[in-house]
Design a protein that fits this description.
Shape: globular
Distance between the termini: 5 Å
CATH superfamily of the largest domain: Dipeptide-binding Protein, Domain 3
CATH architecture of the largest domain: Roll
Number of strands: 19
Structural class: alpha+beta
Strand content: 15-25%
CATH class of the largest domain: Alpha Beta
Number of helices: 16
CATH topology of the largest domain: Dipeptide-binding Protein, domain 3
Radius of gyration: 26 Å
Helix content: 25-40%
Largest sheet: 6 strands, mixed
Amino acid sequence: MRAARLGAVTVALAVVTSLTACTSKVPETVVAGTVITVGWSGSLTSTNAASSPTAGNRDIAEMIRSDFGDVVDGEFVADESFGAVTIVSQKPFTVRYDLTEPAWSDGVPLDAADLLLGWAGATGFLDRKPGAEAAVVPVLDEFARAIQVTDPQPKAQWQTAVRVPVAAHVVGRHAFGTDDPMVAKQAVITAIQHDDFAALARLATVWRESFAVSPDSGADDLGLSSGPYKVERLQQNEQGQTVSLVPNPAYRGALTPKVAHIELVPPGPQPLAELGDRLNVAQVAPRTSNRATIRDLERRDFNVETTHDGTVWAVLLRPSGVFDARRARAAFIRSTSAADLIEGGGGQWAGAYRATTAMTAAPGTKAYDIVSQDSGFSATLGAKSDDPAVERRRAGVADGARVCVLFDRKSAFAKGAFAALKQTTKEAGWAVADCGSNDFAKAVKGKGWNAVVTRVPIPQTPDQLAAQWGSTGSRRVVQVPNKGRDALIAQLAETVDVYESRVVLAKVEATIVKDAVALPLAVNPRLTVIDRRVSGVAPRNGAEATLTYSVAQWEAVQ
């Protein structure tokens, strides 16, 4: 199956990758002549997504990089064809990263040097200055293509702490001017093991800068692939960037590519209208204006997958003024219902907004099941009061108490949810005032509002959790110091057992419930519409979920 291509290209960017003659044969699974074209709003700016983690770079990295596994719906899913990650010691906390036999697209094997460089880039070791405290350099097992990393404290994200975003022999070549890949690898190892600050500075410069993609990019080796696909060419026109990818013959993963060409192209102003013609896959937000079109596509056997973008809609209460007391906040939350607000905000698309009762875990995950059971939200705040007016009075709040509610006027969901909130709380004697803003980002930092209808990122790591819900977190929307919650977050950061971590996370959520500052509503949906002639596209949930996840499973049905 072939899809129509973009028009004439005005600016051609550099070819990013090339294969040597020894790796020119494509996998037998590839069906010659097949093409899948994806509407893509991103752009490739660097082939080192670790140093430049933009959405576009992550999309490409998903296709051109192999790894020990992915975090899917909050759980680590291992790729045993790439290698294995195991805890070898609790005291001191030591993790071993073992490679199987992956190779770069130029035929050079991945080995301990690649792992060591990945560790150095992720930990900031490359950017250390003379006089800085010495770090514990991982122990290399070069024969087994493995490293062992020791940390002072257990690390919750131990399975994903070491990745291989770029090739060590390429970094070594550009940093030290040697063409021999093994010599270049050894130069990287020596620089790190000897804590050679001058050599580390050269490595850091290549790591940060040399993998940038521009019209002047000239080194083919900077685009080497370890994943199922490799970049064949980049093109730029007035509509945006097009990235063309082809199978990587050197890839030996558990699933090898089936499609001969993947084209990531600008989606255009009306991507849904071009599905089945110019486009085979498009990702859109649910809107009133596209409801009829998507329903028609579904009736024509196009597949529509609903996922979420890693954020949760919620009503957050500022614990001051009218909401100074916890009982007042609880009374307000119990005077409305999440279902009413979802219906008001979602409108025709209300069914796409999956309801949630948590701020720290997404519905559909194993962690959410524990969090929702143990947090106490459903028993204390989740059910609408039988007599919300009486509950308000018992909380010491007078009839007609004014509640200034901030929301983004540019968001259809926020506007609809606010309208529903105003109507439902009126029956309980609350006087909800319209404090909506066209400059929401600025307004939310102000002090005039009592409550806000907003989207909040669902934290994926203890650091993100601390930033949002810690007493001194930099991304707090509401200021709720809680030393007990801080201690639990610190405990979570050192919890390596996945089952224990769910229990600790539930305790964190319980402190948020106890403070009565949040009414979770629903996760924010996104829709992936897939041509009926394409199979295997499996979009993921989450803020960092790439559109190109599962690309090795994609198949064009002829």
